[in-house]
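To assess whether the prediction recovers the assembly geometry, we first specified each molecular entity separately, as shown.
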Amino acid sequence: MSASTSGPSTDPLLPRLAAIVGETHVLTDADALEPYLHDWRGLYKGRTRAVVRPGSTAEVAALLRCCHEAGVPIVPQGGNTGLVGGSIPDLSGTAVILSLRRLDRVREVDLSSDTMIVEAGVTLLAAQEAAEAAGRFFPLSLASEGTCTIGGNLGTNAGGTAVLAYGNARELVLGLEVVMADGAVWNGLGKLRKDNTGYDLRNLFVGSEGTLGIITAAVLKLFPARRDIVTAFVGLPSPAAALALLDRAKARLGAGVTTFELMPRMAVEMVVNHIPGNRDPLAGAHPWNVLFEASSPSDPDLRNKVETLLAEAIESGEAEDATIAASLDQRDALWRLRESLPEAQGHEGGSIKHDISLPLSRIPAFIEAMGAALERLVPGCRPLPFGHLGDGNLHFNVTQPVGADRTEFLGRWGEVSGVVLGEVVREGGSISAEHGVGQLKRDLLREVKDPVALDLMRRIKSAFDPKGILNPGKVL
Amino acid sequence: MSASTSGPSTDPLLPRLAAIVGETHVLTDADALEPYLHDWRGLYKGRTRAVVRPGSTAEVAALLRCCHEAGVPIVPQGGNTGLVGGSIPDLSGTAVILSLRRLDRVREVDLSSDTMIVEAGVTLLAAQEAAEAAGRFFPLSLASEGTCTIGGNLGTNAGGTAVLAYGNARELVLGLEVVMADGAVWNGLGKLRKDNTGYDLRNLFVGSEGTLGIITAAVLKLFPARRDIVTAFVGLPSPAAALALLDRAKARLGAGVTTFELMPRMAVEMVVNHIPGNRDPLAGAHPWNVLFEASSPSDPDLRNKVETLLAEAIESGEAEDATIAASLDQRDALWRLRESLPEAQGHEGGSIKHDISLPLSRIPAFIEAMGAALERLVPGCRPLPFGHLGDGNLHFNVTQPVGADRTEFLGRWGEVSGVVLGEVVREGGSISAEHGVGQLKRDLLREVKDPVALDLMRRIKSAFDPKGILNPGKVL
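The predicted structure of the complete assembly is given in tokenized form:
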């Protein structure tokens, strides 16, 4: 029996929460709680007194006041699609889970200001669709976009496949509404592109994973709709050649380079072998591939420019071959190839995963050094560095040797990660490029983060949440 | 006699400072101190024990440790070109001025990572030139760029004329090195585009005007050199028409729209009448004008695109006339017209100045409402809203009525500002879009800022600088 099934009658807090949001929005039944108590990968399980589902910012504020007074921990949760256990409470059962999903209104679309105000529980897909319905483009794009919410995207400073041109979630927000630990509401829903009146609170809340305040709404930037999109798949000899191609593309197309995703040969093979409906877009086998996309609000000549660019790249030896999608179907097929990779990897056994970033210039040497070091550590293991090369962000996954024992391989997670992340830290990289810290990397963060930065983070946490009720045990 | 002339012999702190930086870098002579003790507009005067000129981050850290122990206030200063008194100490004479100008090295240019590491005392012009020498572009651009320094640009989150495409100073920095109040050094000189390992300290220091820590170096983003630049001057019927043109330009050219500067007719006349070498680029007189610039790393067709855009705008009635610069000389002439405006205004008597921003959609109504309200308050006064319309940022200056008494007019600063800024606050705007708070707007900030935000700012200040030695009396 979990604490969560003890029922409202034994917990004096619950009637107070129900008085704020209504009885039907305080969940305590074990079946109702179940989906809130574990992450989708099954890495984390937690317990809770109750899941509370407020329907407005005022209700969030009242809930926080109540929990603050009672010293009750609050774990905010959106779509619960996170990868680091950030939205799962601990096993003590003392925390309340605050589900923001009922805050799902698009409050306003302002075309003159190129902004929209959405509440925390709006899914990323719904936000994209609201922008599209208004003839605009909201560029944040992730695999989980149908489920993840804007509140979670901002709380974790989500990345995705359009960061190269448009930036992380951080760069896509102009203003925030945030409820503090004690229930005070910061109305920071400004639409201003420029505002130098004091400290940048907005960026402090973005990426703080619910440990400094609860984001309830945001002003998002809208961009011109993209009428011209050109997608290509390129075969290359090496990561260094991919970086040279990236340089060439940026010099030619500037901010028009939207996507630049690296995949090693083995990744293409895994997808083609395991996920029906995929095929290698190029005739020959190439050591490395790049999914490349350029886009523009209006550039009928874009396809020609990309063709010229790729022809030059082949001429110079940076690329070996390339194909440009000639239809929407072909474009979808190229993207499917990229997006099927995590699933395909599962068919090859266990993988030890890392979400790292590095200075772009260090990436080729890093990949080479890791290949040698990991082969020494686990002979036959298969490093699969793939992902957002344009941002310096690799999902550096290491798949088990063919035929090895999965459990035994995964048991070496600490050793393998130690080799990979040790080198990342030495090279000035990040141990969490886009997934955040949550529970998964909290202890590791203490080891690798600059001690002055850690000290400043702790000071901010104490200043904003002296009772420590906001998402305790996460980040710090 | 000022405290500054009392000499090192009477102040036990000074030998300790001299032991760190060397005697020649501790200035106490009145003549040597003079340029550090007032702002260039002459609005603020201060006193100091000494100006100290460290030559390295280690020296800055040692100075901070020393002053922290002794409880001595520190006022950081770069090029001293600020507009809000942020780099001038108070009249008590207790503070040390920390001049960062000797930290003037470009430590590294990394083309593969598109970054450069510069020290705080590097002038903005030197940073631009270092980028250019490497075949890249650093887009921050301000009138004071020959004198202002990167440390000051970041400390105040400087804006300028390329924000529309490239963002404020905040958006142009990837990493920082910062010395804390107690002398601890945060080495945050990362080159990473993505790093989700904890709170965003970088953006907290950017724009904090030296009240939270002393920025000693920064990793700046580099951009592809712009080979194609098209500059135009447009005559328009109204601010609403200018916003419509901006929408059209963004839909056509996306991030290629680099500059979009609004000027009323009267501003053009003032420049043409008072500043030699300027002429009206258009044959007829138009109620409003826009200086428009589009640019691209490589788009030989850009001029055609801008021509098409402007032809459509004239066809639709958004624009009345337009001219495109046909040579570098013509381009310089268009920019000179815009940049001569502040000087030209001085020839027309006193001006009451505001640096405001508004949601773009609110700007036309704001300009109209202010015209009527100010005419009621000071009949004949001449509102001159001009500047970075593309960012929602206007320098809303109000010039005295023709022939009025300058002093008497300037004596009504409070009344006039009350009308202008009251409406700005009601419309969700900012009372300081790009110049910062400093001393000038500190008291006003207390009145207009969201009280929850002010409370959070105070908590951060106390957490980072419990003794209150960093640039006291500024911002908060």
